[in-house]
Amino acid sequence: MRVIKRIVWTVVILLLLLAGAVWAGLAYIAPERELGFQLENEKIDVKEKALHMVKRMKPELVLTESEVNDLIRLGMERQMGDHIRIEGADFQLAKDRLIGDINVMYRERIPAGVKVEYEVDWKEPNLVLYPAVLSIKAIDLPLHYLETITIPLDLPSGEAFSVEEVRMEEGRLMVLFDIKLPF
């Protein structure tokens, strides 16, 4: 009888330890803040901003971090693999990378906060984001869950001017133009 009590208590303690470990694991990967896909701007009209730039005769177009965020959210796929859905995202512009917090839901049950980093490249006429880092807290994940994101900027083009350089700075994206005057 004594042996059976010890076995039962051992099993109960092991189950409690297992439940505690599962709870701690879920709390560890849970998102730190709630994110959504709400857009900060009603409509992002990059072409209008570029035409305004031409009127000012200043060969640069500046997109703020919130405008870049909105453009990325519009271009993002909501599904990452078969069982992972993106619930929300927020991105920050760093010197040479785009860093993001993404909230995902695994199998409609387990929420997680994911950190991503993208390398940014200009492939006319689009801004292309290549996955560089994917992690949950300190746990690195394989990059195959992320897809390359293409953001069409819809910049006016022609013989009069072309995009010379796209540069990221803290909090903004700069598009520098080369203006060719006809005289």
Point out poorly predicted stretches: none
Mean pLDDT: 82
Broad structural category: alpha+beta
Strand fraction equals 35-45%
**Tally of helical segments:** 3
Question: How many whole angstroms does the radius of gyration measure?
Answer: 23 Å
The description of the largest β-sheet is:
6 strands, antiparallel
Number of domains: 2
N to C succession of SSEs = HHEHEEEEEEEE
Q: State the separation between the terminal residues, measured CA to CA.
A: 103 Å
| Global shape | rod-shaped
Regarding quaternary structure, what we see is single chain
Number of strands: 9
Gist of the model:
This protein is an alpha+beta fold and 183 residues long.
Supply the key terms:
about 180 residues; alpha+beta; 2 domains; 6-stranded antiparallel sheet; 3 helices; about 40% strand
Give an overview of the whole structure.
With 183 residues, the chain is an alpha+beta fold. It folds into 2 domains: 1-30; 33-179, no CATH class. The protein has 3 helices and 9 strands. The protein has helices at residues 2-29, 46-56, 65-75; strands at 60-64, 84-93, 97-106, 110-123, 126-136, 139-140, 149-152, 161-169, 172-179. The strands form 2 sheets. Strands 2, 3, 4, 5, 6 and 7 form a 6-stranded antiparallel β-sheet that branches. A 3-stranded antiparallel β-sheet has the order 1-9-8. A hairpin with a 2-residue loop joins strand 4 (110-123) and strand 5 (126-136). It is rod-shaped, with a radius of gyration of 23 Å. It starts with a helix and ends with a strand. The mean pLDDT is 82.
